[in-house]
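User: What would this chain look like folded?
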Amino acid sequence: MKILFAILIVLVIVLLGLAVLAFLDRRADRAEWGRLAALRPDDPRVFDEAMVADLPEPARRYFNYAIRPGTPLLPIVEIEMTGQFSLGTKDAPRYQPMEARQVLAAPEGFVWAMKTHGGMPVAGSDSGLWTRFRIFGLIPVARAGGDPDHARSAFGRYVSEAVIWSPAAVLPGPGVIWTQVDDNTARVTIRRGELSQEVDVTVDAEGRTEVVSFERWTNANPEKTYRLQPFGAVVSDFREVGGYRLPFHAEAGNMFGTDDYFPFFIADVTEIRFSGARP
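Assistant: Here's the prediction, encoded as structure tokens.
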């Protein structure tokens, strides 16, 4: 009985410790979310086609489709989404229904808070500072961050997603340079401090984004070794939100454009809000 009682006490202590850790993680999510949302401009400029007149033609096409003239330039975007998230591989993807919310504030950071449903539910968050996920809301299955590899990998993610959902954040300016790749593809290079990321955006004849792709610094490979690997997203279902025309469907994954590609992330946006937008 004493042994069983001791085991019970240890179990209770472990569960309490995990609960405290989960509480602290969620508090950090809220704090970082609030910090990024507060970066919204108090008196935003409005979009004018002259702002992009000197850009390569595919980049002009991208901006002139994505932002209507006179639209306030609001670079901080909050997104609600549902969809499917793979917990497996291409051969056995094990897709799980998921719901998530996200704040994008490129080039400063992001927070993506997600939870799956069914099976062993996974919940947690990804950000420019950490990756933290748990099963059953308590047991850690992924904890990373606080090192140059994670920061570089995360930077690639939120810069590429800004191209998809926050065009005001990637307008030309300090640290943002656009070049031409081909007749329908432009490349944006975004720098912040020691971090730099190139992202290609391919648009149709109207300027509607079709594909966003880049070389991502990641350890999503069998060797679990950080290296550059192709990553990309196909987007569709464009809708207008506050003067912006943005995709409400996205499918993304590693090894984009190769035989090993499969979309582990399939999302349907349910709401997009711009921090600083007037009610």
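Helices lie at 2-37, 57-66, 148-165. If you want, I can go into more detail on any region.
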